[in-house]
Structure formats: C-alpha cells, structure tokens
Amino acid sequence: QVQLQESGPGLVKPSETLSLTCTVSGDFVNSPTYYWSWIRQPPGRALEWIAYIYDSGSINYSSSLKSRVTISVDTSKNHFSLKLNSVTAADTALYYCAALYKWRREFEFWGQGTLVTVSS
Amino acid sequence: QSVLTQPPSASGTPGQRVTISCSGSSSNIGRNTVNWYQQLPGTAPKLLMYSNNQRPSGVPDRFSGSTSGTSASLAISGLQSEDEADYYCAAWDDSLNGHVFGTGTKVTVL
C-alpha cells in the first residue's frame, strides 16, 4: 500500500513560485510500477492533471502549464516535488500528489491534498 | 480545461439506479481506457473503477462501468446515502500527450 503526503507553504504571493513536496512511503520513487503525479483542484471545480515523473527522470507535463511547471524527484529522500512559477490567483487550488499505476494508467493512490492560496 | 464532458448533477432516491455519462473524443476515450474516481465531501478522490469496468478491491458491485465509442458511463444501482459524492471520469489523451479529467458530476441522494 503506497501512502503519499504533500507538504509546502499554504500561501504564496502573486508572481512568486509555488513549491510542494510529496513524500512517498510503501514504495520507492524509482519504482518501475508508478508514475509520480501532481493534480490540482481549484475550489469548487474539477480535477486538473499537472505532470508526472517516472523511471527517475522521464517527465510529462500538461500542455497548458508546461511553460511554468517543473517536476523532479529525490531518490535519497524518497520524495518528488512540484514547482510552479509566476503564480496568479488562478493557481489557487488543492494540490494532490498521486501514484499512477504504469500498466493501466489509473491514479491508484492519492495524498490527502494541500490547499495553496495565491494572495498578497 | 476539462476535455471530458459530464453532466453537472445527477440524483435519485435510495435504491434507485443512477447513470453518469462521460463524453470524450477519438484521442482519449476512443483509444484509451477510462477510469472513474469518487470524491466524498472534503476528501481526496478515490479510485472507483479502472480499465473501463474493473472495480478495485473493496468497491461494491453496485458500481459498474462501460464504454461505447467515444463515451463512457458509470452506473450506480441500489443507490445509498453514502454514494453522495462527486464523480470524475479520466483517460489518457493521445493528442494532448497527457491525462484528462471529466468536468465532474455531483450525485445527490434524495
């Protein structure tokens, strides 16, 4: 059973960089089984896939966020991270990390989510 | 930014059958399997259905999934109060080279 826990600041100023970390337990971030993913959900709105990283370095980004997003992995700490730069109020959302099962492409495990508010 | 379209709401009385549709295109549902997620109020989404119609361990068989062409459906039979939640479909999109979610459907038990 994989468990994921998001961490990071809950408040970010406009134009600055949002940084979040997802700590993984129950598996390793260099595991061949999962794609380590970030998904967000603005208040009252639908889920939006942001990015995932797999095989310790292969990456896919959402085309709508690609210019502002960086995902990375730290195998020594068994966690992966998200950076979103030049944030605006539109980036206010619950941010979830999730484990996508590689062979069937479903998000099998989810973190509890962390709310990030963009405001001055 | 949702590529998959769902009705915003659905409802039924306890024991009834409710169906949620998910409309996509040839680049997503038409070519790839569909997954469904249940999001209970104030909680993270949970995998409800994978590979179009497969239930993870622990999901009641009241839930069933199907696909046809570029659309998918989730059915809840014998509706129960604990089924009141938001439901999202999702699939890989070959054209976008990324994952896409549906617009979400809020199920209310009357």
Provide a short characterization of the protein structure.
Chain A is mainly beta.
Task: Tell me what you see in this structure.
The complex is a heterodimer of chains A (about 120) and B (about 110). Chain A has strands spanning about 5, 10, 20-25, 35-40, 50-55, 60, 70-75, 80-85, 95-100, 105-110, 115-120. With about 120 residues, chain A is mainly β. The model of chain A has no long low-confidence stretch (mean pLDDT about 95). In chain B, about 0% of the residues lie in helices and about 45% in strands. Chain B contains no helices and nine strands. Chain B has strands at about 10, 20-25, 35-40, 45-50, 65-70, 70-75, 85-95, 100, 105-110. In chain B, about 40% of the residues are buried. The interface between A and B is medium-sized, with 24 and 26 residues.
Secondary structure layout:
The complex is a heterodimer of chains A (120) and B (110).
Chain A: E1 3-7, E2 11-12, E3 18-25, E4 34-41, E5 48-54, E6 58-61, E7 69-74, E8 79-84, E9 93-101, E10 106-110, E11 114-118
Parallel strand pairs in A: 2-11
Antiparallel strand pairs in A: 1-3, 3-8, 4-5, 4-9, 5-6, 7-8, 9-10, 9-11
Chain B: E1 9-12, E2 18-23, E3 34-39, E4 46-49, E5 63-68, E6 71-76, E7 85-93, E8 98-101, E9 105-109
Parallel strand pairs in B: 1-9
Antiparallel strand pairs in B: 2-6, 3-4, 3-7, 5-6, 7-8, 7-9
